[in-house]
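Quiz preparation item.
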């Protein structure tokens, strides 16, 4: 079973979504470096959502925006999984 960055098992067909609330796009380099150091997780399906979020003020709409971005990443992952399965 592949490992997540925290050592948890990731079930097949699942997607790890990392919300980079502070690091923004620079987190991609960190994830790539982590995967080099942990080759057993090289195939770990991971999506990064660089999104600053204000959890204290729901009216700002940040939570809804974040949920929409996460759903978009998950939908994209599902489509890739279906395409990969169909190609086999």
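Solution:
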């Amino acid at each position: 079973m592949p490992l997540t960055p925290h050592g948890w098992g990731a079930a097949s067909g699942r997607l790890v979504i990392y919300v980079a609330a502070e690091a923004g796009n620079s987190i991609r380099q960190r994830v790539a470096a982590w995967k080099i150091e942990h080759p057993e997780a090289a195939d770990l399906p991971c999506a990064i959502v660089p999104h600053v979020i204000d959890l204290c003020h729901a009216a700002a709409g940040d939570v809804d925006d974040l949920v929409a971005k996460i759903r978009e990443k998950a939908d994209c992952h599902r489509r890739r999984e279906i395409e990969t399965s169909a190609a086999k």
